[in-house]
Design goal:
Largest sheet: 4 strands, mixed
CATH class of the largest domain: Alpha Beta
Strand content: 5-15%
Number of helices: 8
Distance between the termini: 52 Å
Length: 253
Amino acid sequence: FFLKDVFAGGDFLRMNTVFKFYFQAWALLSITSGAGLYFILESFRPQAAVARGQLWLQRGVEGIWIAGLLLLLLASAVYPLVGTYARTNHYAQRTNSLDGIDYLQSCKVPDCDYDTAGDYTAIRWLNSHVSGDPVIVEAVGDDYSSYARISAFTGLPTPMGWVGHEYQWRVNWLNKGLNAVDFDSRKSDVDTIYTDPHSSVVMNLLARYQVQYLYVGLLEQMKYPKANLQRFSAFLHVVYSAHGVTIYQVPVS
């Protein structure tokens, strides 16, 4: 069986089903493995007196079985050590922290797509000064990238996050034609907000998505190198400007 999602009909139709159910399955198996190992080893204890020859044979089989089991356990223990190093050895040394955005203070190329220090201070400001859940616009880009970082680290809604994931979460919803049209237009509408030179067009789109804040950071500057991103100050209020980041607030009409 599998859960029908965006991968249905392709080569990876069971991908989400397998790895998301297995997360829970492996956790439950790990809890029982300790007790299971105890009962396995207990089963090797002779329950009744046996002949010397049979005892040696039994112990030989048990020894081979235990050696094989230990070999498998040791082999499986290699991955957590080697795999963790392979995944993290290219990261620059940082102070250990439970703060999920702490790394943004000093992350630079090649660990990050750009110098994220400006985003760090801006996100801290948003979390401290913006209450409720007003909509904020930021650049839209590929999954597993730096895009949607403001929405992710502030919890503020945005017209479009990672496109692939937004699509996965709304497979059935997108089966309705009008919903699909709305979904498909969101990325291009965000692009238009950042690039269209006419303030009336930008304001209409901001109103359509009930946007209250517009974010312009280094990632937006990289995404739209030919756009005049300073033009927003002519019709939006600057509420934050520091370290290469400007946050605009949409005037209340």
